[in-house]
Amino acid sequence: MAERIAILGAGESGVGAAILAKQKGYDVWVSDMGNIKDKYKEVLLHNEIKWEEGVHSENEIFLAKEVIKSPGIPETAPLIKALKANSIPVISEIEFAGRYCHGKKICITGSNGKTTTTLMLNHVLDKAGLKTVACGNVGKSFAAMVALNVHDYYVIELSSFQLDDMYDFKADIAILLNITPDHLDRYEYSMEKYAASKFRIIQNQGPEDVYIYNLDDPIIRQQNNKLKLKQKTYAFSQEEQLTEGAWLTTNKQIQTNINNQQTNMSIHELAQQGKHNAYNSMASSIAGRVLEIRKEIIRESLSDFQNVEHRLEHVASVHGINFINDSKATNVNSTWYALESMEEPTIWIAGGVDKGNDYTMLEALVKSKVAGIVCLGKDNSKLHAAFEGLVENIWDASTAEEAVGLAYRMAKKGNNVLLSPACASFDLFENYEERGNQFKRAVRAL
């Protein structure tokens, strides 16, 4: 009789794992405490996979020799505790898929910029004519991509939640972009625990593997000094001149040097502008050179890459006012980068579910760049407390349409209106995509 694998959560990750487990001959049981989306039900039915919704039937789940859990379910959930007490291993979809993956795994994490870098690097590989796919925390699940297509390269975006349930998985190339406070509610409000989670991206790496990291990030630097790193390491920096890795020269050139092979590119040639995108481009450039992709292809890819939707996405100009959708900015640091890249006075739309945010790091930028604030959330008291006195007008809105209308009234010709919430979206919207789409609809209605 086939061994049972139980899968908790029937979103992109869970359904991808179910497809792969079924393909590998397991008896698969999918269980979701909420409602399963119709598109996922269709996939489960098509693949003849047993599922349930609105309940976790423990008599079915406890028959499993292993459980794959959705990254959204915390370790502290009673069911997870019970499984572990019964010595039933609980792993992530990434851990499971890694066992069956024969391609090179290029893994990317960080508090900010991981989606952009994943798609950017995948674009570089694609332009070089390699069989590559971007997956993980962006787009398609890693497990589904392993099951359905054979690729030579998997560029995998990994959130800290996905990293938490990885044990034997190993990245061939690991990229660590930055570590700033985010999701601290899942880590007992401990920065140390959150950082340790991010550092799981380099676990199990050996001398033949590669670790690419941001030298300018104090937490990464500190952790690196504590570790005995066996793998090949390459740093990138905008603050220091290096001899290897990638760095910013005094005349604003990104210089990449891997194995004495130099690549040069002006920061002004990058398709994605702003300090944070220079970091993302440096990381992609190093990985490209490690994989021996031609310099011309890397340069061309970084100069024509189109960024992801909801990340500093220009929506429209209405009567000389620029509307920018950065709904994907769900933490303070992402918003810092967005505000930092604004050249004109900006009306900032912020708010949502606060994840233990500390807004003090935004004060200087708000003073110098923000002409008014619209708070879009159910409880905006923390935003008011943080920024009253720094800007003249702070108004409240409870819909995207209302927020856009208020911002439009506040803005002058030549200003920007920036949706960069610094918060999760779950109080008023299903997710950051829905928030961004409603913002775009409201802008176009103007």
Structure description:
With 446 residues, this protein is an alpha/beta fold. Helices cover 35% and strands 22% of the residues. It folds into three domains: 4-91, Rossmann fold; 95-304, Mur-like, catalytic domain (UDP-N-acetylmuramoyl-L-alanine:D-glutamate ligase); 313-445, Mur ligase, C-terminal domain (Protein-Tyrosine Phosphatase, Chain A, Alpha-Beta Complex), CATH 3.90.190.20. It has helices at residues 12-23, 38-46, 58-61, 78-85, 93-98, 114-127, 142-148, 160-164, 191-199, 218-226, 275-290, 295-304, 332-340, 363-369, 381-387, 400-410, 432-445; strands at residues 4-8, 27-32, 50-53, 66-69, 90-91, 104-109, 132-136, 153-157, 173-176, 210-214, 232-237, 245-248, 253-258, 261-266, 313-318, 321-325, 346-350, 370-376, 394-397, 416-419. The strands form three sheets. It has a nine-stranded mixed sheet, with helices on both faces. A six-stranded mixed sheet has the order 15-16-20-17-18-19, sandwiched between helices. The chain has a five-stranded parallel sheet with strand order 3-2-1-4-5. Strand 1, helix 1 (12-23) and strand 2 form a beta-alpha-beta unit. Helix 11 packs antiparallel against helix 12. The model has no long low-confidence stretch (mean pLDDT 91).
**CATH homology group of the largest domain:** Mur-like, catalytic domain
Poorly predicted regions are none
How would a textbook summarize the main sheet? Answer: 9 strands, mixed
CATH topology of the largest domain, by name, is: UDP-N-acetylmuramoyl-L-alanine:D-glutamate ligase
Domain count: the total is 3
